[in-house]
Amino acid sequence: MDRSRVPLFPSPYQRRPWMVDSGAAAASGSNGIKGIIAGGITGGIEICITYPTEYVKTQLQLDEKGANKRYNGIADCVKKTVNQRGFFGLYRGLSVLLYGSIPKSAARFGAFEFLRSKAVDSQGYLSNSGKLLCGLGAGICEAVVAVTPMETIKVKFINDQRSANPKFKGFAHGVSEIVKAEGIGGIYKGLSATILKQGSNQAIRFFVMESLKELYKGDDPKKPVPKLLVGTFGAIAGAASVFGNTPLDVVKTRMQGLEASKYKNTADCAMQIFRNEGAAAFYKGTVPRLGRVCLDVAITFMIYDSFMEVFNSIWKD
Predict the structure, then answer these.
(1) DSSP result, 129-175
(2) Per the structure, how many domains does the chain have?
(3) Domain range holding 33?
(4) Angle of helix 191-217 versus helix 266-277 axis, rounded to 10
(5) pTM of the prediction?
(6) What are the distances in angstroms from CA 130 to CA 10, 119, 208?
(7) 309 to each of 5, 27, 302, 303, 306, how far by Cα in Å?
(8) CA neighbor of 201 nearest in space, from 263, 141, 269, 254
(9) What membrane topology does the annotation report for this chain (predicted)?
(10) CB 119 within 8 A of CB 111
(11) What is the Cα 210 distance to its own chain's centre?
(12) Can you give the pLDDT of all 317 residues of the chain as single tens digits?
């Protein structure tokens, strides 16, 4: 075996031979192309399955106390949305996430693999702090490249539906209206909050996933991890990230809503939420977000592995 082709340190995506040299992160060679396509397909399937929970979560986070309050919980939000817009009203803004899935995945995996290659020691090992920092860097990269514009547009689309007469007639029309009214900066609202959210998201998820796999493998680093267990580990990592950074997600959502102009900046948004609604407001939408994120991370790992196995069997290098 050519040891030069074996990675010095097993990443959270170890046991995936297509990511040894040129996986989705590398975007070079046939393996890189396979990874990008598989990641995009996986993201599309995952979003279609879990998007209604993202929609409900965003609606609850945008809902304020007082006379403007519209919903009395998850079930009430779903019921009112379906009554007013039909079942597919729960999929408002889905196209934005579909369009952003490929660059988001490429940025995340590419940044993590690059940073990991720089952070390992002479023996090829990555410390616990290194795992957190590489995950943080991956999250920051995806926040700047794809997540902020994608999430901003999605939140504005969902927020637009809350009005009596929605003005966005589709993805292209909605984006053009946002840019026309606010400039290109209009799709980069809440950048700092999104960087904090995505950075902490990936730092937590990579760290938990890596640690759980190491715990399962024990003294045998080559021990394969069954797909169902990978999915379970992904769900646990997703849950950890939700409880760790939902307050940042709430602030990010408010900063990206159509009423974001009333906040001076991210810090001012956080302070106004705390003063007007109390500390509990920072955990609005936790339950629907928990459901979506756990499914998201679990499904992504499992489906991605399956697609790569299919690609490798029919698409030879």
Answers:
(1) HHHHHHHHHHHHHHIIIIIHHHHHHHHHHHHHHTSSS----SHHHHH
(2) 1
(3) 22-312
(4) 80
(5) 0.64
(6) 13, 6, 13
(7) 20, 18, 11, 10, 5
(8) 141
(9) Multi-pass membrane protein
(10) no
(11) 18
(12) 444 444 444 444 444 444 444 333 333 344 445 555 666 677 778 788 888 887 888 888 778 776 778 888 889 999 998 998 898 888 887 877 777 777 787 777 777 778 877 887 776 677 889 889 989 998 998 899 888 888 788 778 877 877 777 788 777 888 888 888 888 888 887 788 788 888 988 999 989 988 888 888 887 877 878 889 989 999 999 999 988 888 888 887 888 777 777 888 888 988 999 998 888 888 887 887 787 788 888 887 787 767 767 776 887 75
Contacts of 55 (CB under 8 A, 6+ apart): 81, 90, 91, 92, 93, 158
Q: How far is CA 225 from CA 159, 215, 308, in A?
A: 41, 11, 16
On whether residue 242 sits in a domain, the answer given is yes
Q: Which amino acid is at 55?
A: Y
**Residue 9 falls inside a structural domain:** no
Question: Which CATH number characterizes residue 31's domain?
Answer: 1.50.40.10
Read off the tokens for 201. Answer: 């998201």
CA distances from 241 to 104, 114, 137, 247, 271 (A): 18, 22, 15, 11, 23
The one-letter code for the residue type at 295 is L
Return d(Cα 6, Cα 2) in angstroms, integer.
7
> What tokens does 23 get?
């996986």
For residue 287, which of 53, 44, 106 has the smallest C-alpha distance?
53
